Amino acid sequence: MTSMTFASSDAPTRPLHLVSKEGLEDWRLGLDARAQAFVQASAFSAGAGQVVLIPGETGEVVAAAGGVGDAKTRARKRFVVAGLRANLPEGAWEFQTSLEGDDLAEAALGWLLAGYRFEKYAAAPPPKAMLVAPKGVDAALLERVAAGEALTRNLINTPANDMGPDELEAAARDLATAHGAEVSVTAGKALEEGYPLIHTVGRASPRAPRLIEMTWGSEGPRVTLVGKGVCFDTGGLNLKPGASMGLMKKDMGGAANVLGLAHMIMDGAAPVRLRVLIPAVENAVAGDAFRPGDILTSRKGLTVEINNTDAEGRLVLADALSLADEGASDLIISMATLTGAARVAVGPDIAPYYATDASDAAALEAAAAMVRDPVWRMPFWLPYETMIEPGIADLDNSPSGGFAGSITAALFLRRFVTETPRYMHFDVFGWSPSAEPGRPKGGAGQAIRALYQALPGMLEK
């Protein structure tokens, strides 16, 4: 069972000493002689994730020490404290540490994130150890962030047979109900006429495409989140190899991330007018699938030559961004598992992003460092605009040559945001390929903690 909340402050607790390699000897010398001898005999070296249980006079566990490694380890790994949770026995624990501020918040959040379990298809043993919220952290905020992360992970981890456009709509409706938001859905003929690119990408699937729209809040700046909701991507007629199709349940990771961020915003009652747009489709293969060489007309009126049906994410986002741009937004943020080029550039951990406003980028990067949610700014490099202009149409959805794939995709999207000066695009991976403390293998939130931290300052302008 997922356990991503703090223990009651009334719970009886035992101390959990967070010990670094640098501070090990001073900590050990501060113990009584019996405890010193026990720790010495246990060969506890304060390695990251290492735990020693300290007994009382009658043998019961009265305290524990958890290793957080050396400075080099802590610089390389996020959430090292999260690795302690699974190694502690049942009960409520309380940090004993010199950590404070952002470092203490990271330790507490890592503990919560280590409580995540995906149990839709197989039971997973819950963590037995709980933590009383440390003094000096905003417990409600950390629980809110952990819940948003859990929502994102659950949506991505669910396979496509149980997470198609219908189910993604249901998830948005459940979130809206929980927070008093409103949802409207455009499908069928209205989608074909108003959002032709979304309709075209999804029309070959028996699972009908749609545009999901959620609105919340009546005062404050207008923030629009747009998330790519390709629930499964075969590649279309440009069919992916089988090995490349294996993770395509995560191709709705952009939608999952914006829904996780939306939960944080609404649960925290942020003073914004929030709009969430999710083009939900399945890119399937059938007789009516769109073809390489087709030229399509977007909602904005721009024509797009299709040179690869596997570059479908930017198509569905284009129509959704056009709608967002029509709505007098103060800030538009799009998130998508859009290009393999982004992963080649920065790997799976870092969220590359693009921003039209330098102050928004500065605020995001300061927040990312604060909450340990790494991002990296990429350029809207205007000289590459010619690469997305095929001549036969306004735009090319898959420029030849293979250069600057993430940048050309971002430039493509920017063509559909012309009325809103502040636009950010995130080309996320949405997946942890291996297990790390607080970050199990599987679906992952990326940049949403940083965005949630940064948004208040960004929206003061």
TrEMBL record:
Name by which UniProt lists this protein:
Putative cytosol aminopeptidase
Give one GO term, molecular function aspect: manganese ion binding
Gene symbol here is pepA_2
Give the protein family. Answer: Belongs to the peptidase M17 family.
**Does Protease count among this protein's keywords?**
yes
**Record keywords:** Aminopeptidase, Hydrolase, Manganese, Protease
Would you kindly state one Gene Ontology biological process term found in this protein's UniProt entry? proteolysis
- Start and end residues of each Cytosol aminopeptidase domain: 308-315
Tell me which domain of life the UniProt entry assigns to the organism this sequence originates from. Answer: Bacteria
Query: What InterPro entries is this protein classified in?
Result: Leucine_aapep/pepB, Macro_dom-like, Peptidase_M17_C, Peptidase_M17_N_1
The keyword NAD is annotated on this UniProt entry: no
The transmembrane segments are none
- The enzyme's E.C. designation: 3.4.11.1
Annotated source species:
Boseongicola aestuarii
Record Pfam families = Peptidase_M17, Peptidase_M17_N_1
Q: Name one GO cellular component term.
A: cytoplasm
